[in-house]
Amino acid sequence: MAKRKIVLLDNNDSFTYNIVDYLRGMTEVQFRVINTHELDIEELDKYDGIIISPGPELPKDFPKLFEVLQRYHRTKPILGICLGHQAIAQFFGADLSQQLPVVHGQAVPMQVLRDDSLFSGLPREFRVGLYHSWLVDPKTIPARLVVTALSARGVIMAIRVTDLPIWGIQFHPESHITEHGLKILENFIKLT
């Protein structure tokens, strides 16, 4: 079987290289890290899937993410993590709101609400690591997005696009305080 070619879009986040460490351990993956600000969008044509990394700011501070989503949302599997999740939600019509209180370095219980291939082989509830100041506003979720997981406090932890292989996760699968994080990334790779 040919290796899946994955591009990891780096939004200037220190957690990006935790994702890199996970990808390095996957024998079925060939990957490249590209800084979003330096991205030549056409270069992504040669990849099978796209991972959008976390970042320290807001999606609007990375306008190329929206260009990537516009160009590839119909043709490539995409996984957005934290800021990437928020960018996907905004691209499809949701709004963000500030998370109060801010949560950084906290592990919280997450409930998977429905069967989804991203969570295949995982329990319905497990702990995930949070590092965010913004969240997807649940009152603004458009019909094209489905919420697939919530935190115990009701914060949206995962979404997917109803008719496309696109997922967003608010939590950090690459964090050591997230249970089953590697399995989630492996599931995404299998879906590319």
TrEMBL record:
InterPro entries: Anth_synth/Amidotransfase (IPR050472), Class_I_gatase-like (IPR029062), GATASE (IPR017926), TrpG/PapA_dom (IPR006221). PROSITE patterns: GATASE_TYPE_1. Residues 7-189 form the Glutamine amidotransferase domain. One of its GO terms (molecular function) is transferase activity. GO terms for cellular component: cytosol. GO terms for biological process: L-tryptophan biosynthetic process. Keywords: Glutamine amidotransferase, Transferase. It comes from the Bacteria. SUPFAM superfamilies: Class I glutamine amidotransferase-like. Pfam families: GATase. This is Probable para-aminobenzoate/anthranilate synthase glutamine amidotransferase, component II. It comes from Desulfotalea psychrophila (strain LSv54 / DSM 12343).
